[in-house]
Design goal:
Strand content: 5-15%
Distance between the termini: 19 Å
Largest sheet: 5 strands, parallel
Radius of gyration: 20 Å
Helix content: 40-55%
Number of strands: 7
Amino acid sequence: MEWLITNSISAWLRPPGFLLLVLLAALLLGWRRPRLARGLLALSFVGLYALSTPVVSDRLRLWLEPTPRDPLSDKSGEAIVVLGGGIHIAAPEYGADAPSRDTLVRLRYGAHLYRALEKPILVTGGAVRQDIPEPVTMKAVLDREFHVPVKWIEQRSRNTLENARLSHAILNAAGIRRIYLVTHAWHMPRSRMAFEHYGFKVIPAGTGYARRRELFLLDFLPSAAALLDSSLVFHEVIGIGWYHLRMLAGRWK
């Protein structure tokens, strides 16, 4: 229930959710406060356009993401932790659950680190909407397609905080404190915050960084992909703020 509530609230606080709320407010105020309504309508239009352009979404991601670094330069890690990023439930082409694009990107990078470092892997996720926990699917893909073994599975978590807490329970029993944390670069600040809170020494192993290149004309045109990137940044910022509030309230255990 908590997962459903927090994600529902987050959906309305990030684009396009809050832009729809602004548009709804403009429609409701159209007769009584026409000037205010026109201002809100313009705000929703400008906001939707800006957040849908790569020139804005890329810069939002660059602001959020840590500076790229090569985790292979630090050999002190004792294990590789790969965070799940979603599942395609009952993918018809496979006749079973399959990793989402984000999960597959993380698995590929985790496999790359394993071959370079030969450190044991833990995969972590949950079973929020699917019958088979996400890490079970992740392990199967690493085993069969990347030929990389998985030593530990954490399959009870529902969010990043629980990824960190329950992974710590597993790895702490094995005497492991220092980890290579594999997730998307846009997710790294929040995930690192969670894992370090629960006692890990984190070596960031980010993947899927935003583009760093010169601007092009198409970067000023709206696209669904850019809007998704902007929404991801808002989601992460909201999540980081929520973590800080939980710490201030003493509810982060």
